Amino acid sequence: MKDKMKLFVFFIVCAFLQVTYQNPLSHWTLLPNILVLEVDGTVGQFPLSCFESPEEIIRRDNQSQDIFWKKNGVDQTQSGNSYLVQLEESLGGGNYSCHGKDGSLLNHTVVLIRENQVERRKILLKTDGEDYLKCSAQNYSGEFHCSWTWHSSRVGRVAFIRAQRVSDDNHTQCSVDTSDLHWMCSSSHSNFSCSVDANSISCLDERHCPYAEESQQIHITVYVMTKHFLVESYSKHFYLSEIVKPDKVRIAKINATVIEWSYPSSWSSPYSYFPLTFQIAQLRRGCKRCGNPCTDSKALKSLTFHSTDICQFQVKHSAKAVCVRAKDALCNSQWSEWSHVRLRKKTKNKGKNKKQA
Predict the structure, then answer these.
(1) pTM given for the model
(2) Residue 16 pLDDT > 60, yes or no?
(3) In angstroms, rounded to a whole number, what is the distance separating the alpha carbons of residues 306 and 337?
(4) How far apart are CA 311 and CA 314, in angstroms?
């Protein structure tokens, strides 16, 4: 009877705290022990519990005052099973841990703050003025890469990744390994594995079939957080055919007037099923100081043709260099980076020959 009374009081207290102190607009669990609070900048409080289960509360009732709290490793004045997170503007995030009388770790919760304001600074910057996430794929294997640019004053790290097909909706389960660098997102229709770098992710849809029509878009969402425990999410939808970008073509000079190139080794095969369109540009002017003369767009005069095999091309005698790039022939996707070769024609040095004679 005594235990039932304690349980009843526990529920009443929890309900009171939820009504009285739950000022955040909403809250949800991003991962076990990671809680997101959405705030609007007003002053508020949010209750955390060291132990959630009523059974554990009852069992430890006599020792509840021996529970002490830390925020980011710093001792706090509050004690007991419940802790009130103080919220003001975008402040209040942190790693909250509860400890026993002997200092042992009992539990912890990482609180992330999501600002719900129309005009606010962003953690990421738009790439090329288009989007926050820039995604590309080398081929149709199901692997793709997404990168971003950190704001100079808000550099952070990845807190959560969700990769799924649009049809999966909320049925996708995502998890991360102990290193926080390798993620798995699985559902009944897709199985994505992702690895995280400082400013990019690489993902593979292990159930993707490159020879079948892609009926559902990929939906990638990246949650990033700063050292001040602010969190934001950035999403992108795409088909692989929309982001595919071949690697550079392999180009070589056969003789003074003929060049040859072949498909990138990373491109999907057979080439008859995954054909590429090639653009060839002949440069009439040299660019001795240029690392890649193809970047001088004013000097380019180009033509386009299709091939599913090794290609040879006869250049004009006046050409100083030749540039070649490729794109998927069947969809309006990105061009590869330019490959180039410089043409050095032999010239006779009459004065030198006469002197040697």
Answers:
(1) 0.79
(2) no
(3) 17
(4) 10
